[in-house]
Amino acid sequence: MCCDGECRPLGFLLGLPFALVSLLISFVGVLVWIVGLTLTLVCPCFLCLTVIVEVALELVKAPFVVIQWFTQQIPC
User: Fold this and answer.
1) pTM for the model
2) With 80 as the cut, is the pLDDT of residue 71 above it?
3) Which residue windows are transmembrane per the record (predicted)?
4) Distance CA 28, CA 37 (A)
């Protein structure tokens, strides 16, 4: 049966546009992550960029977090 708490197609459909926007933002996160990681490997004086790299990794995870949040908000 669909209403066992795991299947919420309405939440998935409502969250899909927001997940697509966050997917675009995650591509920016990937670029920031690559540039930041490269700079920290080239020069240790760019150690402060590790915070930016951590934020970029959170941006990469954003689409999954958004779609899970929307799915959990809609009751079955």
Assistant:
1) 0.59
2) no
3) 12-33, 39-60
4) 14
